């Protein structure tokens, strides 16, 4: 009987402590919430999400924060001129010459017969688009690859090629930034 009472007391004590600590955590999450700048979220959504670091920042979100803080908008080669124009429009500033060269969209391709399975490309890929295991053949999940080229340099056998994506009906996207907009005059139907 004494053991049963001890177990009930222990469970009740743990339950009460759980409620107290849970309430403290809930209050802390509301009281000390870090508020994001909404413009950073908008700018991040405009960037291509390659997380390639070609802009000098470790990913798209840190670059978006830097743009919001006044950094140049012309440092994203994967996004190209279209993204730079969107950023300039959103920030209300004049577009500049794009740093680096604008490249066609690329994806990584691993020549599997030359792959030694070192996993260095897997470790370098910021979006986990490479599939494989130690001392096993690796391959690229083409739908996930952002073309950042970060997997190329660490490969000791130089078996990774960056290939341009062939435009098909499935992956073609209309670039709304380059479409000139026209206002169509409407005819008024004044019947007097």
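Sequence proposed for the structure above (192 residues):
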């Amino acid at each position: 009987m004494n053991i049963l009472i001890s177990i009930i007391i222990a469970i009740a004590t743990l339950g009460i402590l759980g409620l107290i600590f849970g309430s403290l955590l809930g209050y802390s999450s509301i009281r000390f919430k870090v508020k994001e700048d909404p413009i950073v979220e908008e700018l991040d959504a405009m960037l291509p999400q390659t997380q390639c670091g070609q802009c000098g920042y470790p990913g798209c979100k840190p670059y978006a924060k830097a743009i919001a803080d006044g950094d140049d908008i012309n440092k994203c080669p994967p996004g190209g001129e279209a993204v730079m124009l969107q950023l300039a429009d959103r920030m209300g500033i004049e577009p500049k010459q794009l740093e680096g060269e604008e490249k066609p969209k690329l994806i990584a391709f691993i020549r599997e017969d030359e792959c030694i399975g070192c996993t260095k490309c897997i470790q370098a890929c910021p979006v986990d688009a490479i599939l494989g295991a130690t001392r096993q053949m690796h391959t690229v999940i083409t739908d996930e690859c952002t073309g950042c080229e970060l997997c190329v340099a660490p490969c000791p056998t130089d078996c990774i090629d960056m290939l341009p994506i062939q435009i098909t009906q499935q992956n073609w996207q209309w670039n709304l930034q380059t479409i000139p907009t026209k206002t169509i005059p409407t005819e008024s139907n004044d019947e007097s």
